[in-house]
Amino acid sequence: MSEAVRRVQSGSPWEESFGFARAVAAGDRVLVAGTTSFKGSVLYGEGDPYEQAKVAFTSALEAIAEFGLGPESVLRTRTYLTHARDVEAVGRAHKELFDGVRPVSTLLVVEGFVDPRILVEVELEAFRGAVDS
User: Fold this and answer.
1) What is the 3-state secondary structure (H, E, C) of the chain?
2) Gap between the Cα atoms of 127 and 41, Å rounded
3) Buried-most residue among 6, 42, 85, 133 (CB within 10 A)?
4) What pTM did the predictor assign?
């Protein structure tokens, strides 16, 4: 039986000022959103979309690890980019982390983020039940 709704914070400066959690588990789902390559006040991979994607997805995976889940539990990813030119670099990072899992995935190009140095923001949804391949 799944636990009640549980929220996990990551320490992002925006979580406190905007009033959100890094991850929320409800029933068999764990949702992670608003994940960039910031860790605290430090932006990792500035100017490098591949590195920002790796750090952001790794941070999202760390959030679901709080619920005892790993990449094999990921059902969906969403990736937001500021430049279409970065699709291949970000896709390469996604493949390195999720190739064995093959979640459904959406990639969108957006106008920008709250900090103009951010090139990539990610979301994922994970399932806390049994997962078949």
Assistant:
1) CCCCCEEECCCCHHHHHHCCCCEEEECCEEEEEEECCEECCEECCCCCHHHHHHHHHHHHHHHHHCCCCCHHHEEEEEEEECCHHHHHHHHHHHHHHHCCCCCEEEEEECCCCCCCCCCEEEEEEEECCCCCC
2) 30
3) 6
4) 0.90
Q: How many CB atoms lie within 10 A of CB 119?
A: 27
Q: Is residue 87 in some structural domain?
A: yes
**Is there a domain that residue 132 lies in?**
no
Decide the pairing of beta strands 120-127 and 104-109: unpaired
What are the CA-CA distances from residue 34 to residues 37, 56, 76, 83, 112 (Å)? 10, 9, 14, 18, 13
Token pair belonging to 103: 């979640």
**Residue 61 tokens, joined:** 């995976």
Tokens of residue 94, six digits? 């996604």
- Count of domains observed in the chain: 1
Instruction: Encode pLDDT of 68-122 as tens digits.
Output: 999 999 999 999 999 999 999 999 999 999 999 999 999 999 999 989 999 999 9
